[in-house]
Design brief:
single chain, 118 residues, mainly alpha, 6 helices, elongated
Length: 118
């Protein structure tokens, strides 16, 4: 997060000042620029594309359906991958449309009250 801030603002202020202000080393910042993405971000990119491509066309976009489709395409998935799919769906803004609230059915068993007006 700090390195992203430095990369965004290094056109305005010198990198040395930003690194000193945020308490990070300049060599760490420059190493971060040249470093390849870690395994989690690579996995998120791959899985995020599959989640977006495999989501149902209907409005019922829910994690169990996407997990089932992903499990059918690839291999059976565990709890960690299931949670990763839910997190990626949250980040992509995929969520189910809530059900409409309906009134209870009227069976007509109630007695009608009569009012006697004076």
């Amino acid at each position: 997060m700090k390195f992203a801030f430095i990369a965004k603002h290094r056109a305005i202020w010198p990198v040395a000042w930003l690194c000193d202000a945020l308490g990070v080393s300049r060599s760490g910042f420059h190493a971060c620029l040249n470093r390849s993405p870690n395994a989690r971000s690579r996995s998120d990119e791959e899985l995020g594309g599959k989640v977006k491509a495999s989501r149902p066309a209907s409005w019922r976009v829910i994690a169990p359906m996407v997990r089932a489709e992903y499990g059918a395409i690839c291999s059976p998935i565990g709890r960690t991958v299931a949670h990763q799919i839910e997190r990626l769906m949250r980040l992509q803004g995929l969520r189910a449309r809530p059900r409409r609230r309906r009134l209870p059915k009227d069976s007509g068993d109630r007695q009608l009250e009569t009012f006697n007006y004076p």
